[in-house]
Hints:
Elements lengths: L4 H16 L2 H27 L2 H6 L13 H22 L9 H19 L2
Helix pairs in contact: 1-4, 1-5, 2-4, 2-5, 4-5
Amino acid sequence: MLDTSPLTAAVERFADRLRAMPQSRLRQGAAAQALELARELSVRAQALEGPQQAAAAAPAREIPDAGVFVVGDQVAVAGLDLAEALRAAEAAGGARKTAKAPSEILDEAVRLVEQAEVRATR
């Protein structure tokens, strides 16, 4: 089974930092960075979960902008959803055709979270 703990740890750390940020900091761009990340993680999870035929028929569902105070939770949910989709894709053992291996997608996702955290906390 694919070890997704690096992704879940990075997501939880960033989500906790977002939850602890003052409103002024969130409004200065941290919330926008976090929402962008949550949306990207969600798109990646949906691509792994959805059947290949439906991918062309329906666009990915987008995480709504629900305000600056919920972006930490949105990042956490999207990141944990992606971790679960990666574990399922790995367990399917090739039954789901993806352009990249689940481990490669995992590494990219961890980098995305770390980069978003750096941008949001500068």
